[in-house]
């Protein structure tokens, strides 16, 4: 091989290596950008996860409060039903007493009219 041929071959090899270096540099840059985007996506997802965790906590607290309120309302309703039954019983007894008194009054009136 002649010196010119060797020089040409070496220059071709250098050009080929420079192309490879250029391609690797572009690939490295692309990979870096992709990595940065992935990290930003991960951060956004972590932020969203944290936000949703807070929302979940507030919803759980609200649910607990609603369940407590429901239990209080059920108890109050039971108490009202119990009082209602008692009042209805008292009313029935009072109506019977009034009826008895009216009957007695009527009987007394008839007795007084006969005398």
Record keyword descriptors for this entry:
single chain, about 120 residues, mainly alpha
Structure write-up:
This protein has one helix spanning 3-114. It is mostly helical and 115 residues long. It starts with a helix and ends with a helix. Helix content is 97%, strand content 0%. The chain is rod-shaped and about 165 Å long. The longest helix has 112 residues, at 3-114.
CA radius of gyration: 48 Å
The coarse overall form would be rod-shaped
Number of helices: 1
The N- and C-terminal alpha carbons lie at a distance of: 163 Å
Describe the biggest sheet?
none
How are the SSEs ordered, and which strands pair?
Elements: H1 3-114
Summarize this entry quickly.
With about 120 residues, this protein is an all-alpha fold.
